[in-house]
């Protein structure tokens, strides 16, 4: 189901069209054409470099296609995770806006509808939170309850903060709780969590830069030896034992890089 909602721009004569979000599963990510091309070029460059430095042969490029599928899987997971992180930050800004409307006497349903236009002052039309709020507004116009709308959004987002807010809203609607105070508490909880995550990322920023530099050092050393002392490594490329040794080195290097990034990936 798609519903096109038109909004006249305050500046200019154009008309802005926003499509309400479909049933988007945030646990998955679909690469577009440009992202596919970028991934193929980036992975191909890595394989060419590995073939030149570790095997003195570009035939290793033949392994590019099967390994690309594995790399694509991890790339999709990474992009989906990043998208969910951005969604939570956008959601925090959105419920602050909700709170401002509810605090002035609007019902939660009215607050969602009025927030759609205001969100466009802070976000782009194709941002996920904007599409989700327009989707909720469309459902409300079809007499779907706000509890069902939030439950659907929370389920698809897979984020604890959004799920908690959905549950609190459902309980408050049934019991007639103080909605402004409930939303305010949710804003503070999500805000504190995001601030903690940002502090940790700031602390890890320097370490991440150091780690990336350390990752490049072995490659730089091998490249230096290949260019300025080609005979020194020639023996490793011309016999089976040397190829096995270089394969083991490549495997250990790849495992160390993967392990390092996992250590730096701290969840709050």
Automatic annotation (TrEMBL):
The chain crosses the membrane at residues 36-52, 58-74, 211-229, 241-261. InterPro entries: T2SS_GspF_dom. Its main location: membrane. Residues 97-225 form the Type II secretion system protein GspF domain. It is a multi-pass membrane protein. Keywords: Cell membrane, Membrane, Transmembrane, Transmembrane helix. It holds the Pfam family T2SSF. It is found in: Cell membrane. The keyword ATP-binding does not apply. The keyword Aminoacyl-tRNA synthetase does not apply. GO terms for cellular component: plasma membrane. This is Type II secretion system F family protein. It comes from Candidatus Scybalocola faecigallinarum.
């Amino acid at each position: 189901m798609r519903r096109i909602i038109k909004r006249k721009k305050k500046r200019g004569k154009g008309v802005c069209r926003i499509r309400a979000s479909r049933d988007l599963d945030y646990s998955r990510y679909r690469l577009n054409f440009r992202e596919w091309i970028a991934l193929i070029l980036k992975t191909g460059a890595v394989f060419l470099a590995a073939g030149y430095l570790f095997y003195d042969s570009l035939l290793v490029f033949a392994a590019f296609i099967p390994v690309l599928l594995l790399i694509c899987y991890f790339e999709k997971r990474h992009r989906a995770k990043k998208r969910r992180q951005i969604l939570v930050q956008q959601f925090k800004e959105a419920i602050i806006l909700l709170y401002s409307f509810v605090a002035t006497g609007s019902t939660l349903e009215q607050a969602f509808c009025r927030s759609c236009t205001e969100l466009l002052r802070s976000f782009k039309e194709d941002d996920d939170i904007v599409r989700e709020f327009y989707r909720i507004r469309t459902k409300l116009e079809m007499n779907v309850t706000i509890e069902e709308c939030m439950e659907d959004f929370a389920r698809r987002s897979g984020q604890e903060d959004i799920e908690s807010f959905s549950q609190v809203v459902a309980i408050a609607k049934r019991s007639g709780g103080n909605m402004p105070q409930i939303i305010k508490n949710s804003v503070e909880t999500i805000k504190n969590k995001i601030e903690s995550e940002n502090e940790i990322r700031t602390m890890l920023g320097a370490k991440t830069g150091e780690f990336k530099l350390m990752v490049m050092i072995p490659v730089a050393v091998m490249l230096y030896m290949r260019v300025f002392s080609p005979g020194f490594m020639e023996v490793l490329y011309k016999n089976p034992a040397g190829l096995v040794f270089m394969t083991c080195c490549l495997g250990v290097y790849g495992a160390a890089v993967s392990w390092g990034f996992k250590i730096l990936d701290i969840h709050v």
